[in-house]
Write a structure and sequence with these properties.
Elements: E1 18-21, E2 25-29, E3 33-38, E4 43-44, E5 47-48, H1 56-70, E6 78-80, H2 94-97, E7 101-105, E8 108-109, E9 112-119, H3 122-131, E10 133-134, E11 137-138, E12 148-154, E13 157-158, H4 170-177, H5 179-202, E14 205-217, E15 220-224, E16 233-237, H6 253-260, H7 275-293
Antiparallel strand pairs: 1-2, 2-3, 3-7, 4-5, 6-7, 8-14, 9-12, 9-13, 9-14, 10-11, 14-15, 14-16
Helix pairs in contact: 1-7, 4-5
Length: about 290
């Protein structure tokens, strides 16, 4: 059940140091732990849009917590989402934090984003049309838009603080992370995707692809940030899926599709969204949560 909290675009907590403000999340330092607050900001093409999407932060927080608890075969950073278990310094901010925050372990993020693709969509479809590859990985001829790949593929990318992430090769991933850690994150990423795809399909959702982040905690690789959300994944309604066409979605692809109709050059500042797009996007996020968790 989602609350009726006001839209949140940014957050300051007097007396609690903020150490990062990402595309969606605000991160605060609790000495040995971190507070992660998920706002209602939305980004597209690596640019933050000026509008809030109602309930988006609550959906992302709830879904990430749901998946972290289901994925019992790997370590993750989540400690708690229960306000009653938060340190007393945060109690005055209960209204702002309710439903959209979590206390997490203080991991050192790895400098690579871990993308798993199970279907031919987005930038992968564009590359396939020109070279019959995705991120340099050769694929069979004759695949259609949104068609399932013969097997899911791991396509890492750099993490850009500003501007666009860039796809990198497996060899480059190994060079950045080292063979052992690179092998771990690839194996874990594929396992998370396969688990998520199987469960989501039982709830009528196809997970076409997903992006994951990992960090080092006490010498071990753990899953951090978010997990299998409409911000980090493409969610398609299974009942309406048809290879060869652009599927409807429960994610921010709806926003991307709208932005593609504009003359915007995909550099900041991003254009404002009309009320209809905001309302429909919020509904898509809430429907994804309802199907997967409730």
């Amino acid at each position: 059940m989602l609350g009726g909290a006001m839209d949140l675009l940014t957050l300051e907590l007097p007396g609690v140091p903020k150490i990062a403000s990402g595309k969606v999340r605000e991160i605060f330092d609790l000495e040995d732990r971190l507070l992660v607050v998920t706002t209602d900001r939305i980004s597209a093409f690596d640019c933050i849009l000026p509008n809030a999407i109602p309930h988006k932060g609550e959906v992302l927080n709830a879904l990430s917590a749901f998946w972290f608890k289901r994925l019992d075969f790997l370590e993750h950073h989540l400690i708690t989402t229960e306000l009653g278990e938060f340190p007393s310094i945060l109690h005055p901010f209960a209204d702002e934090l309710s439903g959209r925050s979590m206390i997490v372990r203080k991991a050192q993020p790895l400098p690579v984003e871990c993308v798993v693709r199970g279907y031919l969509a987005g930038s992968g479809w564009k590359e396939y049309q020109s070279s019959r590859t995705i991120c340099g990985i050769a694929l069979p001829p004759g695949l259609r838009h949104a068609e399932a790949l013969p097997t899911p593929i791991f396509t890492p990318s750099t993490k850009a603080a500003h501007g666009h992430d860039e796809n990198i090769s497996w060899d480059e991933c190994r060079r950045i992370l080292g063979d052992e850690v690179a092998g771990q994150v690839r194996s874990l990423s594929l396992a998370v995707y396969e688990h998520g795809r199987s469960f989501a399909l039982s709830r009528g959702i196809i997970v076409a692809d997903t992006k994951l982040e990992f960090g080092m905690f006490e010498g071990r690789v753990i899953l951090i940030d978010e997990c299998l959300t409409p911000d980090s994944s493409r969610f398609w309604p299974a009942a309406e899926y048809a290879p060869g066409s652009n599927p409807p979605s429960f994610d921010k692809q709806f926003v991307r599709d709208y932005l593609e109709t504009l003359s915007w050059d995909k550099t900041p500042p991003a254009p404002a969204l009309p009320a209809e797009v905001i309302e429909k996007t919020s509904g898509k996020y809430r429907e994804a949560l309802r199907r997967l968790r409730d």
